[in-house]
Amino acid sequence: MSPKLGRGRPAAIGFAVAGSLLLALLLLALGVGRYPLTPRQLAAVLWAPISGRSHGLPPAAEIVVYRVRGPRVLAAAAIGAALAGAGAAYQGLFRNPLVSPDILGVSSGAALGAVLGIYWSLGVAGIQALAFALGLAAVGAVYLVAASLSRHDPVLVLVLAGVVIGTLLGSCISLVKYLADPYNQLPAITFWLLGSLSGITGRDVAAVLPGVAIGLYPLYLVRWRMNVMTLPDDEAQALGVDTRRLRLGVIAAATLMTSAVVSVSGVIGWIGLLIPHFARLLVGPDFSRLLPAAMLLGAAYLIGIDTLARTIAPLEIPLGVLTAFVGAPFFIWLLATSRRGWQ
Questions:
Q1: pLDDT digit string, tens, across residues 54-73
Q2: Using CA atoms, how far apart are residues 118 and 286, in angstroms rounded to an integer?
Q3: Where residue 154 sits, what CATH number does that domain have?
Q4: How many domains in the chain?
Q5: Range of 275's domain?
Q6: Average pLDDT value for residue range 298-312
Q7: Angular region, 122: left φ>0, alpha ψ -120 to 50, beta rest
Q8: What is the pTM of this model?
C-alpha cells in the first residue's frame, strides 16, 4: 500500500487526528453501557478527584467509572497499542505489508503458551513467561524456515511458513483443549481464546504494562535504523547497520509486547495487520512517526471495538469475532492492492 497520502500532509495533523480519535473513543467508552452517564455526569466524576469536591452523583457512578470501565478501557488502550506497534515493527522489519503477529505465528505461539499456563494453573507471571517463550519460538521457527528456502520468493515463503507454523500450533492448542478438564479448564480456555476484556482488573493492567514498556523501549531506540531496514540487507550493512542483531532485537521486543497482552486478553487478531496501514496513511512510512501513530490508532481501535462488544447485544460479543468481521474484508482489499507498491 502506498503511503503517499501521509507524505502530502504534515505529520502533526496525522497525530492530531489519531489523538483526537483516541480521546473521543475513551470518553465514549467510559460513558456508555448498562449504567449510562451523560457527558456532564462523566465530566463531574472525572473532575471530582482533581478539584477535591464532591461530584454530587450516586456512588455507583464513581464505581462504574473507576472500578469497572476504567481498568477495562486502560487495558484496551494498552493491548491495542501493543499489537499495533508490534505489527508496525514486523512489517518494517520484513519489508512486507502483509506481515503481522497473527500471520507470523507469534499470536498462536503466545496463545499456546497461555493455554498451557491455564492448563497447569499457573499465575499471571507464569502465563506471561510461557506466552513469551512460545511466541518467540514460533516466530523463530517461521524465520528459520523462510531463510532455509531463500531461493524462493521470500515474501511468499514467509507467509506460507507462518501459516504452516500457526496451523501446527493451533493443533497443539486443540490437543490441550481435548486433555483439559471439561468442567473447569476447558470453558476458561475456550472463552479466553475468543478474546475478551470482560474480567479485566487493575491488577491485570499493572501486569501488562511492564511487558509492553520493556518491549517498546528497544523499538524506540532503533526507530531511525528501522528506516534503513527497508533497504536490502547488503545495502543496509554498507550503511553500518548490523541487520542480523537488529532483526533479532526487534523480533524479541515485538514478540514480548504481543505475548504480554495476549496472556491477559486472549487472541485478538487483525490489529497488527490493519492499523499500521492506517497510520502510514496519516503520517507516512518514517518509523519514528509510524510507531507512535500506530499505537495511538491501535489503542483507539480496540477501545472502540470493546465498546461495541459490550453494548450492541444483550450478551457480550468476543473481541476476536468483531475484529475478524472488520479485518477480513480489509485484508482482501489489501491483497488486491498490495502490488501497487508499499515502500
A1: 888 888 999 999 999 999 99
A2: 40
A3: 1.10.3470.10
A4: 1
A5: 4-340
A6: 94
A7: beta
A8: 0.87
